[in-house]
User: Fold these one by one.
Assistant:
Number 1:
Amino acid sequence: MVQRAPTAEEILSTVRGSDRRVTLAKRTVVEVLVRARGHLTAEEITSAVQRLRPEVSPSTVYRILEEFEELNIVVHSHLGQAAAVYHLAGAVHGHLTCEHCKQTIEISAAHFDALSKELQKAYGFQLDRHHVALSGTCARCRDNQRATR
Amino acid sequence: MVQRAPTAEEILSTVRGSDRRVTLAKRTVVEVLVRARGHLTAEEITSAVQRLRPEVSPSTVYRILEEFEELNIVVHSHLGQAAAVYHLAGAVHGHLTCEHCKQTIEISAAHFDALSKELQKAYGFQLDRHHVALSGTCARCRDNQRATR
DNA sequence: TTAGATGCAAAGACTTTGCGCACTT
DNA sequence: AAGTGCGCAAAGTCTTTGCATCTAA
């Protein structure tokens, strides 16, 4: 398994190697994803892409992201009820999202090990650690709630 | 803590006791919720309500559900990326949703005990066990995936 | 009486789809 | 040359909001 972040060229090779075409729009999306530090919404990706290539449309970005997911180049997560966020596939991690302030905390996938085994044993269910964020209340919002009461 | 399911009258008392009005639409929503066995989407609730009172509009149902959440009468969960589901507040439980077939499995909240403590200790994060379903692959879909490869 | 609640319709947020043309291979 | 992929615009899904009217208390 590759642990380091892939380069733009490596990603485009994957695209080429799977009977898909390498287009300007795809190159630009790859560029944006490789440069990005964290998670980006489709809209953020679109904006960043359009800064480089104004003609690229949102629907194209969605289609490219869908293709990239099929090729295991990117994954997306739902951090709340808002837009999904995308990032390069790689180190799997989990997310916590505060229901109140919407802040997201990234956590190690290891936190899920015990639960994952339990669900596997009890229900044959294979947990996906990154696709959906766990919901709850962050420390700060919890303190605020207490102070208010 | 009340463990048994509340009656319609008890629910309406809660509404009365909080400076809100008891309307026909609210009575009907309560009736539907009390009768319902499992989780219902807002649309399912609306349909059921309209069978009894055709004039009640979807927006009213959403507003009533929102009010009922404030009063801790109902809770809603997001089982996937589709519509949220609502049910009477009461016994907390968790959900697993299969990313492939969208099937949902209800699980005991106890499964989350260890994880919950861990997140509390590590991040001060208080896990909400029912608000968002855990995502993954159910046993059947996993078998199908294996057979396909 | 009078403010909260409702019905209707429109808007909003996010994402997908249809179609004809362009660009990659 | 052939057909995938694209841009544009429209549609789709779920939910919220504005506003005039109605109604519970």
Number 2:
Amino acid sequence: MPEGNVIHHQARRLSRAFRQHQVRIDSPQGRFAEGARLLTGHTVTKVEAHGKHLFIGFDNRRWIHIHLGLFGKWRFGTGEPPEPQGQLRLRIMTDERYAELRGPTVCEVLDAAERKAAIARIGPDPIRKDADPDRAWVKVHRSAAPIGSLLMNQQVFAGVGNIYRAEVLFRHGISPYRPGRDITREEFDAIWEDLVVLMTAGTKRGRIDTVRLEHLPEAMGRAPREDRHGGEVYVYRRAGRECYLCDTEVLIADMQGRNLYWCPACQMS
DNA sequence: AGCTCATGGCGAG
DNA sequence: TCGCCCTGAGCTG
């Protein structure tokens, strides 16, 4: 259940484990059987993330393209892989380690051109050094859609998910309902820079922390809190509780079928 | 055992 | 906008 930071984290982990190794690949569940047959015995040359998309490159110029969706999960281990349990789509193995993939929305083999096309379909990814924020700015600037929706749109900001969407808007005091075209260039630049910082930190830690030190519950004289996703946040999943900064009740609403969290006082417009 | 929810995204209408 | 796909965790009984 990952945002871009987790995918980048996993890409590094897969790279450390398998790059320049000849690997065995199978699909106990069977739904990746053909891909496994095509790639088993080949050497991993590169692992990279673009937004929430993961690409594993092989020495026969093929790539595995993976998108975890809401449910996808990797499990890593050392030594002999255990007997397959549950719906195990894909296993990558060497004599030393293994990685198991369950529940992805996408797990397919692409050639070089198809990989390129898949990357071209998504917007700039704040975690990537080669990202061009102007591509996102143009889309935001021209859009009547609310910024809360644009931040979740992978063709505008690749890798941003529900947590970073809520948190970055809170940190900049911007209402999720403000139309994209009413975001100033200064505000956009501040949002982008903040996403770079937050998501890069999230990649290293493998969790999402967005609360400034001086605003942490301990610093504010409040009880510490740890949400299920493991990080410390201002508004995400805090509906009905007090805003850390102004004590107003954090709100929840449905925005295009996803839960949206914000403080109506700190983010008036 | 069964229900609900989840850091996502697609296609039908 | 809704339904659907994929899986597992955390409840409720």
